[in-house]
UniProtKB/TrEMBL annotation:
InterPro entries in UniProt: Carb_Metab_Mutarotase (IPR052996), Rham/fucose_mutarotase (IPR008000)
Molecular function per GO: racemase and epimerase activity, acting on carbohydrates and derivatives
Protein name: Uncharacterized protein
Entry-linked PANTHER family: UPF0734 PROTEIN DDB_G0273871/DDB_G0273177 (PTHR43239), UPF0734 PROTEIN DDB_G0273871_DDB_G0273177 (PTHR43239:SF1)
The organism of origin for this protein: Tunturiibacter gelidiferens
Pfam families with a match to the protein in the record: rhaM (PF05336)
Length: 69
């Protein structure tokens, strides 16, 4: 996840807690994720070291015909 310098996980957690769509997503995803029996269920997500970064191959975004969707 790329963020700005003023990003905090605490602020994101608060925003997520107040967002009904995020809460619905978290409930759905929790049915697919296993958490160690010793772990707090709220710790499903962990910060990781970046191992890959996708770089743009062109300076211009490609045009997408929305009628295809």
């Amino acid at each position: 996840m790329d963020t700005t310098n003023d990003f905090t996980f605490e602020r994101k957690a608060e925003m997520d807690r107040l967002n009904p769509a995020v809460q619905a997503w978290e409930r759905l995803m929790s049915s697919y994720q296993n958490v160690s029996s010793e772990s707090d269920p709220s710790t499903r997500w962990r910060q990781m070291e970046r191992i890959f970064k996708l770089t743009h191959t062109t300076d211009q975004p490609s045009l997408v015909d929305r009628r295809e969707f």
